[in-house]
Amino acid sequence: MNPILSLTRKESGELLSSGRGLAWLTALTVVLSVLSLLLVSDTELSLLDNAQVVYMVMGTIAALGALLAVVSGSDSLAGERERGSLIPLLLTPLRTDEIVLGKMSGQVVAWCVTYLLSLPYLWAVGGGGQNLPQAILALALFGTPLVLGFGFFSLGLSARFGNVRTALSTSLVALALLASPVLLGPGLRQSAVGRMFDAVNPFSAALNAFDSVVIDSQPFLAQATRFAVVLVWLLLAMAFAGRSARDMEI
Amino acid sequence: MNAGSLARWFVVFAFLVFPGAAFAAAPLDIALSADGRNPPSPQMGDRLTFHSVIRNTGSAPAQGLVAWISLVRVDAGHERPVDLEDWSALKALTRSAVAPGERIEAEWPMRLIQAGDYRVVISAVDRGAVRVVTSPFADFHVRRKPVVESRRILPVAFGMPFLLGGIVLVRWARKR
Predict the structure, then answer these.
(1) Is the ipTM above a cut-off of 0.95?
(2) Across the strands, what pairs with B63?
(3) Nearest Cβ partner of B150 from A40, A47, A49?
């Protein structure tokens, strides 16, 4: 079998067949279930418009996907080193870039599964309301580069630090900073600093696109700038991961 | 003794025995109006405010005044009194005494929870009252808006974790 396919299969299999991966997916559904139940049991939340609720759930799904990517990416190369399996991996016929892509394929599968598991929740909260199909499409379009960008970024840190704990803690700090717009509403980001942060933050770009498409019923074409921001984030993170893996000290 | 004479004797007797009670109750007058800033066509989740003015029009003070807000749903097939638990934090006000001619103004904020036709009314009694005094009705209609429906959420919210949890358990049992 092609070595890169072999690595891809190993990485994605770890998510779908290992107890750790399934436990994570169960935890993901529990979080989304608790959020959904809050939406119907809390008077204030239950009166929110459907579109507003769909927007909230989309933000949560993107944040959970990014969290899984960060945890998985931090473990990718530093974990191999700590388990003593990095040198056998480097001795395979794979180039460094191919190793990075193989490692990332596990994250692509993780995000696809996360996305598929989130669809029933989006239907449950958004069915009967406005723009549900657009919400599903927007989550795929903006969520995928956003989440994979976090995966590449933490993989790069994993290669640079060579230590899972350091890579994970640094990645989590970066995720907490960039994902802060999930908690801070647009009203709290109206200062000059907030607007500057929003302009370059891929998480803000994705959330603002969700808001625009789902709540304000704006067309996808109007989100080109925001799509460019998340795409640039993905490309920069890819470049960082590739460079870090090449510079990695054995 | 006919019934009319008996009634007259009863009134005289009651006046002599309970001089400070029913017949000394202060007459109250209640006016109720909607706030001018209320949305003209409110929908679920909006907030309305009503203003009431309770006036003691009698010559004696009204002791131990209690005024409260009531809401009834009146659209056909859904007629019922509404539990104000989620609708309003302010459900009643009290005053130890209201002097003759004194006005008690109050604001009654309300969060609209459910669609339908409603009538709101303010009622008041004082300690010596023999019957409740009510304001005129203020009517309003609440428009429906699409919100989260529990009948769609509950199966997903409970089903998905159980499904995945079940898969984890089956795999775990097979491995053992």
Answers:
(1) no
(2) B97
(3) A40
